Amino acid sequence: MTRMTLRTRALGAASALAVATLLTAGAASAQSTTSTLRGTVYEGDAAEAGGAIVARDVDTGFVTRGRISESGTYVLNGLRPGTYEVTVTSADGQTGTDTVTLSVGQVATLDLDVSAAGAVSADEGTDLGDIVVTGRRIFEVRTSEVATNVSQQQISALPQVDRNFLNFAALAPGVVVSQDPAERTIAAGAQSANAINVFIDGQSQKSNILDGGFAGQDDSRGNPFPQGAIREFRVLTQNFKAEYEQASSAIITAVTASGTNDFHGEVFVTYQDSDWRSQDIFSERRGQAKPQLDRMEYGATLSGPIIQDRLHFLASYERKDETRSNSVFLNRTEFTNLFQDELGVFEAPFEQDLYFGKLSWQVDDRQIVDLTATYRTEQDIRDFGGQNSYSRANAINNETQSVVLRHQFQGDTFLNVASVDYRQSLYNPQALNFSDSGEQFRVYRDASATIPGFQFDYNQSDFIFGRGGGTNNQNIEDTVVTFRNDLTFNEVEFYGFHTIKMGVRYAIHDYSVAKFFNRNPQFSYDVTGTILGSSTIPLQVTLNLPTVPAEVTNNQTGLYIQDDWQITDKLELNLGIRWDYEDNGVNNDYVTPDNVRQVLAAFETRPAYAPPVNVDDYVADGDREAFKGAFQPRIGFSYDIFGDEQTVLFGGAGRYYDRIGFNFAFSERYSPVNRSRQIFFSPNGGAFGGRTDTIAWRPEYGTTAGLDSLLGGTQGRGEIFLIRNDAPMPHTDQFNLGARQKFGDIQTAVTFSYAKTKNEYGWYRLNVNDANAIVVRPSEFTDPATGQPYAYNDSVFYSDHDRERTYKAMYVTIDRPYTEDSGYGFNIAYTLADGEQNGSRDQGQGAFDFDYATLDASPFFNTPGVERHRVVASGTLRLPMDFMLSSVVTLGSGRPFTIGNVGAGAKPDWFAGYPDKRAFLPGLNFATRQVDLRLSKVFTVFGGQTVEAMVDAINVFDFRNYNGYNTGLRLNNNSPLADFNPLYGAPTSQALPTRTIQLGLRYRF
Q1: Strand locations in 276-413, DSSP E?
Q2: Dihedral (Cα; 742, 743, 748, 752), 10-degree rounding
Q3: DSSP code of 262?
Q4: Could you read off the pLDDT of 834-874 as tens digits, one per residue?
Q5: Ranges assigned E (strand) in 744-892
């Protein structure tokens, strides 16, 4: 036996400073949450016909049985990530035993020998990184997928600013994790965060209504799941198989930890103090105090047996507390005495609780049942400061609860996995004082420079201060029950060996969307009191009409079949096709209101009106046909050149459909009836301040009830939104070709990737001309039902579904798994990428484009957020005295920004500018530079229990990374061309994190 390890300490040291860790590019998965072990049983050089094979999970005692075919091959499907004792018994009673460790999503190859020379004892272990084997070297399994496995060791050991396990998705090439402290999202392949999907224990976490991709991450500072309950996860960025749905850029599939035959527990705490964080350079230059940010996270996990080898439990709880502070101040200090009690520094707390529980029951040698439950709740106080008092703050409330019941049955030649799951996601941002009226205090300017005396105009004012209740009040809920069944046949022989998997998914989504913006009055006052003779009498008020929540049921169906075809011992094809369908994804039961139809008909009477689309395609009669064309063929191949799994060529192509978020479609239902009404007050009513419709103020108008009575005769104004009746779903066609090469324990890969995305959606205006000017307005026509102008704002919006993106990339990965034997490991992921798109610059579901009349008029431009060069390296190194050093290094060439003031009145040059690069190492310059370090030490205390002390230094060298720049190329955008702006490209804001120190303790038993 040859032991394939590299004990090059010099390489390990360099890796830990450049950083490194256990991250294996995995193989094709037979189940999104499990692994497959396959191979051939030999007696010497001859294949052994017939017999049995048993894989026993050494931690839980769970057993999986299979049989050896007449050609000597075997396949064990449905294995959970973990360490297995694999025992084979031939037809004539000979045995062989090996021990292997499998990661999530792997298809591992293990050939076994039952001859006296081939059989080995369980003590002869060999660690080969992607799989741990006893007595037999295991090569990496061939796969056409472009995937990265993130191990529990990495999740536990690598430094991170908070306990969000998805931070480590950035270890995969082509993946970017947002550093926005107010909203942590993941994007890949030059697409938005909406294009990903995350599975936890096979349950889809797709956000069906809001932005973010992952349900619960829109506007959230929180962690999506208790990190202590995650065993490991896998990031698939290209050529993922037909079993995965509702994603066109990347899939993340995570599996939770399970209880074992031994009791284990963990208690942890981490803490960051404001004094342990450096101040950003711009606030320091302004002489401001360092903003407060204190963060504490703590929790516990307990697991163990209920019945040995049969029934186990795991329970986990994590808490996150953050305290920020915002300053409330006046720019016009002469009014300080009016608002003295509301000025100063106020705390903005964030609180989150995460709960998880799991029961795992092996009913018998063929059946396993899992039951898991998750609960997440959080509140974030934000959106105040500056000239808005604490009373204007919003509470961003998020809540998610889920239950998954999963049954796995192992037959002689098949595996069936059936599951039913429930998930409820609630997004409830609400003004802290929504029951109170809002107040804005203003100073009014002289409306005329030529007319003597002060000329008052309601629209000529400067904002001074805001207080009272804010306008936000939403309750958005997605409740889904999903039934899923996956059936795998693993002994199909026809011109080779086939593993055929097929499945069906049926999900019942109930959407409840309620938006009650501005249902509390918002008053405006003259802070000087000169207009009406008092600063306590308002000059105007806005109040929205009440709206009815939308209650919508959307049924989703998915079907797929996948064939993993081993043609020879060198060549494998992966053939699959998937079809997805939603019966009410884009308001399929919606009926366009009569007065909207009347407005559209009235527009046709104006000669200047030339709609860019056929308006009849946007008028709905309640029978909008659902999109049925989401057929997604997927093909991949891998070719082991020498048949030893050392040098493998791979590639693939496929179509991947995403979906239209309901919040986009909701605008069609909501905006026409979300009407804002406005009243102007004056001393005596009538003509005043350039208006003829003012009302004399009365005290009863200070309440919502009083205003509803006053405004009963006014219509208010909504907005018209129209969705195309045959709206297609967005999709991406992906192509990749690459090669993998192993050098001992080091695995390398080069992948060339291309992706073309079509049918993304956005909002354009129906009633503009080619010069992007409004040519006709709803208010120009009289509504026969009211005798008044139609109560709609000037712009009429229609959905366009032809936005495109193109992504070209090269991925280079170098992986050396960490092992206790070697004491080091590393991973390096390099991405060379180019992305471009047309349409709206907005990457979210809003996607408005006011800059161009139509999508066809929009140019192609660099995709925001895509760096030309990006390097992420991670690793772990054992130091003397058993100290552990781990690190994550992130380097990037910089994200593009828009160049303004290009001259002669031209539109901006969208995302064409790039930030200056600064030195990282001599000769290596990057715009983004961040080195995170963790130093830890484990102390053994009584009874073999341990206490681990950790110090994290995030951005340890305090590199200044910027996210805002002076974007004006010239001093103005006029003609003739102005001088160049000497400050063009200069940074104006600094990205977080600045250097941050975090202390942690972890107790284990």
Answers
A1: 293-307, 311-328, 344-364, 367-382, 394-410
A2: -70
A3: S
A4: 999 999 999 888 889 999 999 999 999 999 999 999 999 99
A5: 746-765, 782-783, 788-789, 792-816, 824-837, 861-862, 869-878, 883-892
